[in-house]
Amino acid sequence: MTHADTGRTPCIEERLAAARDYAPRYRALVPGFGPLPSIPLAVVTCMDARIIPSHILGAPEGRIQVMRNAGGLVTDDVVRSLVVSQRRLRTREILVLQHTGCGMASFTDEDLLAEIEQDAGARPGWAPGAFGDVEASVRDGVARLRACPWLVDATRVAGAVFDLADGSVRVVA
Ligand SMILES: [Zn+2]
C-alpha cells in the first residue's frame, strides 16, 4: 500500500513499533535529566529533517530546548513557547538557526494560498511565511525577539545559518 498522492509507504505503525525499542535507552538517559534543560539555550529552527540541532551544536541529547516550524520563523507561537521556556524553564539565551536550501524559499505565500484555495475553497487566516533571503529572515527573527517585551531582560539572542551543503554554521546576527 502507498499514499496515492505521493507513492510513499505509510510509516506511523512502523515508527511506533520502533518507539517501543527506545524505552530502555530513554530509561538509561533520564537519570541525567533534571526538570530544567541543563544548557539554558532555546533554539528556533526549521522542521527540515536534515537539521539536527543537538548534533550541530554539540549538545548532549536532552539538554537544549528546540522550537521548530516551517522555516524556523519567529512566529507568535514561537514567542509563546520562548516566553514559557524562559519564565518557567529558565532558559536565557536564544539561537535562531535557519538553513540554506530551505523549502520556504522555493515558493511564495501567494502560490501556496492560491493552491489551498483551489483545493479547500477558502484561504486560511495565516500567512505561510515564505521568504526570499535566508539571512534577512534570520535577522528579522532576531530583531523581533530583541524587541519582544515579554522575554526577560537578560535575554541574549543570536542568529545563524546552517549550510546544508557542507555542515558549517555562519553567524549572521
Ligand atoms: Zn527549512
General description of the model:
With 173 residues, the protein is an alpha/beta fold. It has a single domain, classed as Beta-carbonic Anhydrase, Chain A (3-Layer(aba) Sandwich). Helix content is 35%, strand content 16%. The protein has five helices and five strands; from the N terminus they run H-E-H-E-H-E-H-H-E-E. The protein has helices at 12-29, 53-56, 76-89, 109-120, 134-146; strands at residues 41-46, 65-69, 93-99, 156-162, 169-171. Strands 2-1-3-4-5 form a five-stranded mixed sheet, with helices on one face. Helix 2 links the parallel strand 1 (41-46) and strand 2 (65-69). The longest helix is centred in the N-terminal third of the chain and has 18 residues, at 12-29. The model has no long low-confidence stretch (mean pLDDT 95). Bound molecules: zinc ion (ZN). Residues 46, 48, 71, 99, 102-104 line the site of zinc ion.
Shape: globular
- Give the helix proportion (percent range): 25-40%
Return Rg in Å. Answer: 18 Å
Distance N terminus to C terminus?
47 Å
Order of helices and strands: HEHEHEHHEE
Give a short summary of the structure:
With 173 residues, this protein is of the alpha/beta class. It has one domain: Carbonic anhydrase (Beta-carbonic Anhydrase, Chain A, 3-Layer(aba) Sandwich).
